[in-house]
Amino acid sequence: MEFEAVIGLEIHVELNCATKMFCDCPNNPGDDPNTNICPTCLWLPGAIPRFSAEALEKASLLCLGLGAELQPKSAFDQKVYYYPDLPKGYQLSQAHLPLARGGGIDISDEDGKTKRLRIHHIHMEEDVAKLVHEMEGRLPISLVDFNRAGSPLVEIVTEPDFRTPHHAMEFLKALRTQVRYVGSSECSMENGTMRVDANISVRPKGTRQMNTKVEVKNMNSIRHVGDAIAYEISRQSQAVQAGEAVVLHTRLWDPEKKVTLPMRGKFEGPCVPDPMVPVIELTPEWIEKMRVRLPEMPAARAGRFVKQHGLTGEEAAFLSEDPEVAVYFEALVVRGIAPRTAMHWLATQLLPAVKERKMELASQPVTPERFAALLKMLAGDEINANAAREVLTHLFESGESPEEIVKARGFKQVSDAGALEAMIDQALATQAAAVADFRAGQGKALGFLIGQVMQASGGKANPKIIRELLAKKLNAVS
User: Hey, CA dihedral for 27, 31, 33, 36, is it positive or negative?
Assistant: First the structure.
């Protein structure tokens, strides 16, 4: 029997607000343990939550960026469960009246067709404290760090529209891009600002039945999400084929063994309206103000890049994936760099160099002004491509301008025909075999000869002029 998977995702995104959701403590979970806490974080007697306007704005922008519809009324509930990371015995979340409903993301299916993956709803909730387990020593202990308690989250709950690991991975990549564009979160699974749970079940292919699902947690990269889903589809399919029952429970992904392991039975505690946080009422005017604040989103920006700058769809999509890259690209174009030249050098030279140095594009020293000056020298034949790559390396290490680096280190391109002809004549005299190969119709011989002249010039010769002069001399040989 052939099976297909039915998959839905629950994605927690930590909002990059200055403070926590219900108090004024700094929203910096990574600080020294238990330094950003107050009576509300610890939920001491008499503590009263004060809802953050910034959290509402950032959550609303996130919802609008994903095409969801903000609800006129939303409210917080007490999601009751008992665990050491939640001293008050419940978590403030929006179980019954979420902030937004609907929305979705279009992805490319495995066969290249567009597939719409829908969002069921998006709600706000507070994060819980962090448990730190010390297993070494005579007596293993668990410690609680309350820095994270009360950090503002949104949870994005999808429809069970996913059928393959590819669907889940492409959805998460697109969602991460959308959220980063609106500026609500860095959305990094590696840093914990995006956490994903996958609900997976299998059914006979071609049927529409909904079977018992299993929830998988502990995935800290998009690749791990795909691997965990693939493993769980295989595990459940084999179990059903063998006549075993699939039981509702939670599993953990072990990235080293590449298997899911049972964690605990699935428990759903009661969820009752919270009396202390007022109902949130959003007017049409307020929603429209939020909508106006939305930036140009990735798909729209990519479409504009194709139309305005003549890029291919793939090139435009690449540049639009990261808002910082898109802004940098347009900064080069504004400074007179041809769009395709800007795209090529940004993608193949600058971004890899920034990544290699473990820097951020927005804060690294090669500003658009400096990079544009370098590319203008290249376009004006003042330097060649090899020299431009050398100058780029120096731009990371020095505050000098590209012009100063070229002058000080002798990178200026040799374009004088007389000087180049002497080098060309020398190459033709010493490389008779290559000349014969060219006469015999072997086009690679020309490239070899160009390389010989470039080597003789110390890499400073103008390759375009070398090619022209070489072709003229070779074709003149009888």
Answer: negative
How far is CA 334 from each of CA 307, 310, 327, rounded to the nearest angstrom?
16, 15, 11
Residue 314, Cβ density class (10 Å: 0-12 exposed, 13-18 middle, ≥19 buried): exposed
Same domain for 435 and 350: no
Mean pLDDT, residues 39-62 taken together: 94
Helical H segments across 268-322, by residue range: 284-292, 298-309, 313-320
**Cβ 181 vs Cβ 294: under 8 Å:** no
The residue-averaged pLDDT of 203-219 equals 89
- Alpha carbons 146 and 95: distance in angstroms, whole number: 23
Residues spanned by the domain of 385: 296-409
Residue 52 makes CB contacts below 8 A (sequence gap 6+) with 17, 19, 20, 21, 22, 152
Token pair listed for 289: 């103000």
Q: Are 181 and 82 found together in one domain?
A: yes
Would you tell me how many other CB atoms lie within 10 Å of the CB of residue 138? 4
One domain for residues 191 and 88: yes
Residue 478 in this model has a pLDDT that exceeds 50: no
DSSP summary character for residue 244: P
pLDDT above 80 for 61: yes
Q: Tokens 């063994």 correspond to what residue?
A: 257
| DSSP one-letter code for 461 | B
Q: Tokens 């902030």, residue?
A: 99
